[in-house]
Design goal:
Elements: H1 12-22, H2 27-33, E1 38-40, E2 48-49, E3 56-58, E4 64-66, E5 71-77, E6 80-86, H3 96-100, E7 110-111, H4 115-119, E8 126-132, H5 136-142, H6 144-153, H7 155-180, E9 186-190, H8 203-223, E10 227-231, H9 240-245, E11 250-252, H10 263-270, E12 275-280, H11 285-288, H12 291-305, E13 311-315, H13 325-338
Parallel strand pairs: 1-8, 8-9, 9-10, 10-11, 11-12, 12-13
Antiparallel strand pairs: 2-7, 3-4, 4-5, 5-6
Helix pairs in contact: 5-6, 6-7, 7-8, 12-13
Length: 343
């Protein structure tokens, strides 16, 4: 490309604040103002829901339940309001029969008949479909602690549950990409696999439970000529070779503050085989740094990760309310100013 592409994803409260601070009225105006090259379709262009149960329903005490049955509630955190997962409805299940009694959604619950036409106005962006998951979404019903225990001592339960989500998302996004008729460029899947210091589970467990299911998503994505972006926070370097092997094209978010995720090391080791996405710290730099410090860090990341291509400049995670607007503008401005390739 002529310059390093840029991407960003704020939470809803940051999105509202940016519209107020920057005077933008539409999502397109905000993306253009921040020079973002990618549009995430979630909440922008969605298939029409036509399922037999509510897509989202209100429960007591501010809890909301979606068509999967997972439940969320807005709670005040150290950084401000966030949608948090609560009341894991399959946490007490003890058998596959218990799982089977749950109301499982089908891709038939979504209508893609006019989907392509509604994508036409976004073709000046790289269009990204998102929302696939094979490990993380099952935790929203089972709870991460219980699913990890299943993987260790009741693997048949973990396999059944993760297969259910994998089958749905392969079918759902196969229909979406077919309906889009070439108008989608990237499919994003998200499965956090690590903490700040290491993996949630061993590489062997990853290869048993997660890798083959991610490969099904990647293979389906590539069958449509679409790039596959995989998101995982944390110290996941021991898994990067596996992710490249199954066909991940873009690795997000490059959480540089996590152990073993030094950008220069990762660029040297993998930069000619996979595109790196992210790298701008949302834990310390963006919430606590000055605009000048943000600009300096962006320049450093561009020098290392942008060398020779294969980098998309973005924050390491969703922007939360502790990130001031001036630092978001500093990141975007420095990316535009310093990210151009010679010639």
């Amino acid at each position: 490309p002529d310059r390093v592409p840029m991407d960003f994803l704020p939470n809803p409260w940051v999105m509202d604040r940016l519209h107020r601070d920057l005077g933008t009225a539409t999502h397109r105006e905000l993306l253009k103002r921040l020079r973002s090259d990618i549009v995430d379709l979630r909440g922008v262009v969605d298939p029409k829901y036509c399922g037999p149960v509510p897509q989202l329903r209100e429960l007591p005490d501010g809890v909301r339940e979606n068509f999967w049955g997972w439940r969320q509630k807005v709670m005040q955190t150290a950084t401000g309001p966030e949608e948090c997962f609560v009341e894991f409805v399959l946490a007490e299940a003890t058998s596959i029969e218990d799982f089977q009694r749950h109301r499982w959604p089908k891709a038939d619950w979504f209508d893609f008949s006019d989907f392509a036409a509604r994508l036409d106005s976004w073709q000046d962006f790289a269009v990204m479909a998102s929302g696939a998951s094979v490990f993380q979404h099952p935790t929203f019903l089972r709870g991460i602690d219980q699913l990890l225990m299943d993987m260790a001592v009741q693997p048949e339960l973990a396999h059944w549950l993760m297969d259910r989500f994998t089958s749905f998302y392969v079918d759902f996004f196969d229909r979406m990409l077919t309906a889009a008729q070439g108008r989608i460029d990237i499919l994003r899947a998200a499965d956090d696999l690590g903490t700040q210091r290491g993996l949630f589970f061993s590489p062997e467990m990853f290869r048993t439970f997660v890798k083959p299911r991610l490969k099904k998503l990647a293979d389906m994505t590539h069958s449509h000529g679409v790039k596959f972006l995989f998101h995982s926070c944390g110290a996941i370097r021991p898994l990067i070779e596996d992710l490249i092997e199954i066909g991940v094209d873009i690795l997000d978010p490059l959480q540089a503050a996590a152990d073993g995720m030094d950008p220069q090391v990762l660029k040297q080791a993998y930069g000619n085989r996979i595109c790196l996405h992210g790298g701008i710290c949302t834990q310390y730099l963006l919430p606590r740094g000055t605009p000048d410090e943000v600009r300096a860090e962006v320049r450093r990341r561009l020098e290392i990760l942008g060398h020779g291509g294969g980098y998309i400049l973005a924050p390491c995670h969703v922007l939360q309310t502790d990130v001031p607007t001036e630092n978001i503008l500093a990141m975007s401005g420095a990316g535009l100013e310093c990210g151009r390739y010679a010639g």
